Amino acid sequence: KDPEKAKIIASKIRQEYILRSSQGKPTSAAALKSRTLSDTINLYNQFVLESDNAPSPGTAHKYILHLKKWMKILDANTDTELRVAFQDYSLKKENARRKKTGEPPLKKGGYASSLRSAAAIFSTDALKYYKRHDFHIENPLLGEVPKATFEIFIAPPNGLEFIDTLFRAAEKDLSGEKQMYPIFLLCLGAGLRAQEATHVKWCDIQDAGIIVRSDEATHQTKNRKPRTVPVGPTLKQRLLKLKPTAAGMDDFVAPAL
Description:
The chain is mainly α. The chain has twelve helices and three strands; from the N terminus they run αααααααααααβββα.
């Protein structure tokens, strides 16, 4: 939680990411004209490091792993090979093959999620970046990624009562935990991710809600953008009751242990 130390760590992580991304991979526009998927991955790494519209390095690494997985499954090294291979591919066929080799089957949900992650390397912003670097490629997974389906969540009749029960149980069991209790309140009451909750400061608890900041040197949100989460007065009161008298507005709500 030391900002200066965080900057040094962030810089080291960035340097390590650049090093791993460039090892043994062509980076010049001339070299990239071969249009192999490995070259695409290399240029995507540059896109992640240079573009404001790119995902975080951690998320990008996940996308790359999924694309490499499909390259291995389909034995494809270029966008054309990947596109052609998918024309003769189906989840049913893949699981039949996996059954013969003793590999675990792909589940429908995981299959769709993996494809969406792999296809993220061919996002609109990424393709524009590739084109600016004289690397023309189309999305080989276009039309292959199942559409995400979302069901409307209907809270059970006793939903609010159940949440209140959790709050009361936490107040009893975690009230002595100076770090875990506020993190629990922020995650359950405001829907924050755990890492987001650990970086909330007292000055972030405002009338409009709880501010979730995004800073490259300390903590970045998943989409690299800050946001304000509206919360009710009860959660604010629960949190402010935990504020030590000596705590400053720039101190973290969940202090480091």
